Every structure is written in structure tokens, then in C-alpha cells.
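ZP: hey, is the D-serine complex queued? I don't see it on the tracker
AM: it wasn't, my bad. submitting now with these inputs:
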Amino acid sequence: MTDAYEALTADLAAADPEIERLIEEEGRRESEKIRLIASENYVSEAVMEATGSILTNKYSEGYAGRRYYEGQQYIDQVEELAIARAKELFGADHANVQPYSGSPANLAVYMAFLKPGDTVMGMALDMGGHLTHGHTVSATGKWFNSVPYRVRKDTGRVDLDEVAELARAERPKMMICGGTAIPRTIDFEGFAAIAREVDAVLLADIAHIAGLVAGGAHPTPVGHADVVSTTTHKTLRGPRGAMVMCDAAHAKAIDKAVFPGLQGGPHNHTTAAIAVALREAAQESFSGYAAQIVKNAKALAEALSERGFDLVSGGTDNHLILADLTRKEIGGKPAAKALDAAGIELNFNAVPYDTRKPFDPSGLRIGTAAVTTRGMTEPDMDRIAAWIDRVIAAAKAEKESELDTIAAEIREFCKSYPIPGWHA
Ligand code: DSN
């Protein structure tokens, strides 16, 4: 155990050994597994230190210079730094760094521009969208009139002609592009042209790809979408939080919607950690990281295809792969559970036009942001694909001992790729 790690956890170990033990176990789990959940990552020690800082003690309703509590001499500076860095990194006129996470960030955008009952057009959840893009179980589907668009069955990709046709027929007040299971480049310019034609606000939800956008590995929505929302903890590699960015014309509406519209005091420790992550993402090395995420995803996609895995849209342009296991004759859920037992963590996921149920769908969602942070490269992706293939075969043959064998191999493999903030 390193001195730094011991120093960080000594008080916790003394005060609450149960929680300390669980954190210790989670650290071990994160270090011993190949983590391929497309929305997860490993943050730096600097981000962790800011997240665990004394800033958690402070209430700061309002915005810098206009707070409802005294004592904001330093908090204002923290938030202003985070805002300035977000604006600089993404080239946005305005940034609000207070949303607690992605769903509240998106709800703030609804609140800023829509009234209950207005029509919103986002990608259907089972096509790769997000709950807050108008899904029926979400407040956004219950309180707004949702007209979801789909991907094409034959290509697995969005067809902007179809989107335009639906938009002309439905005249949404807001359109949303982006989502949680989109393996291909999003045409922000194309979406913006449709939104302009039907006089809709365009929200680009870049939660998954924010790090790729920041690192130049995916085109930016800034300059095309009216509003951009993102979480900060996926490819962007910051703490769990979110931001909304927009042009100057929409700034007031967004700020009012976040506070006092939806939220109370911002989580200042998170704001500080977002600022740290944004500084990290502005370093030249981050562009290399973003490019490597995509290289790894392409290498993994190719290695899986070679082993007979069907990939939605045939491959990937970003950090994410969506595998359809129908031809492998195993459901996504039993496959994900077997993979987890064998040391490969990912999630089961619906594929477009899935014939199975959402809680037992046909697909696996796979992402390369976390393994890339650990320093893994293309040859490692081939090994990972081989392990995935062996696990699926073992799961089908109900060979549990093979899963144990693979888990041991993976534990050994992971030792060469230490994770930040964790002792060896
Ligand atoms: N839970 C996130 C994801 O996994 O993509 C979306 O909110």
C-alpha cells in the first residue's frame, strides 16, 4: 500500500472500517477487472482529491457574485474557473457547471425552452437515445409530447432524411441529438439544419463523447446546436457531474432553469473537480488519449467481428461498440453476467429493433474509455476480444470453471495496468 493511499484513507479506516473496507474492495474490483462500461472511466488522483475536499462543506445557492449565502470568496473563484475552462475547451459562449448530473442537466434545458405538453423529438431509448430524451417512463415522456426518431433497420444508423420528414410532420419545439448507445459520428450540422427549418431548439447531448469532442476525436456541436449538455464523468474523465453550454442568447434561460428552476446549492467539491478535469482535458496529451480511445474501439470492433460478433452499424467511429448476440444464440444479460464473473465488466443493452425485452435484451454495450486510461492499446484489444469470445462459448456450454480460469488470466493481465488512486 502506498503512503499516499494510506494517508488518504487513514481517518476513514479508523472512523468507519465497514465503509473503508467496501471502498477497498471496490478499488480491488476496479483494478482487477477489464472495465468496458461505455459510460465509465478512471479519474485522476487530482480529480479525486478535489472531489473529496473541504468544499463539500459550503452552500452556494446562486451564481458567482449573486449568492444567497455569505462566505463565497473562494467558491466563486472555483466556479468561475470551471466555467472559464469549459468555455475555452469547448469554444462555447456560456457554461453552467452546476447540474448535479446528466438527467438534471437535460431537464434544465426542457425547463428553459419548453412548456409541459410541448413536442420534443429525441432518439428512442431502444435505438440508442437516453431516458431524458422523451422516453415514456421518464418525466420527459410523461410531461411532454414525445415523438422519437429511430435508426434505419438496414444500416443501424440515423437517416437524416427520415428525421427531417418526422420533424416537418410533428413540428417539435425541441430536437435532441446524441444518446447512450450510438457507435457512429453524430452529424450535428445536419441536425441543426433540420431544427432551423422547423424552428426547434436543438439540444446536443454529448455526455458519451464529450472527451472525444474536447480531444478533437469527434466533431463539435458548438456552432451548430443551440444548447449542449454533457455529463463530466464519461470520456471527459471528470467527477460525476454535468454541464450545460450554450450561446450567449440562451445563457440567461439556462442559468435560471438550473437555479432556481430545478436545483438548490451546487456541489462545490464537484465543481472544483470538474475544473481540474477540464484543465487536464486541455493538455495536449488529452488529444492523444481521445484518439487512442477511438483506435482501441476500432481495434476491438474488428477483433470481435473476426470472431463472428455482429456489430450494430458494422463497427464504430467513437468509443462505443454495440454487439448483437442474436447469432451467437445467447441473450445479452446471461452474456454480461458470465463476462462479469470472468473479469470483464460491461452492460447488456437493447439493440435497434430488438425482439427481446429491455431487461433481457439481445445486445452488449462495450466502451474503451476506461481501458485506454489504463494505457491499454490495440494488441490488448485483440486479447480482450479473444477473452470475450471464450467467455461466450463457456457460458453457452455452462462451463463455470472456464470462467474462473479466464478471471485469473485477467487478474494477472490487469497487474500491468495500474489504476489511479489505488495501491497495487
Ligand atoms: N447511465 C448512462 C450510460 O450508461 O450511458 C446514461 O445516463
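AM: back. The chain has two domains: 54-281, 293-414.
ZP: great, adding it to the tracker
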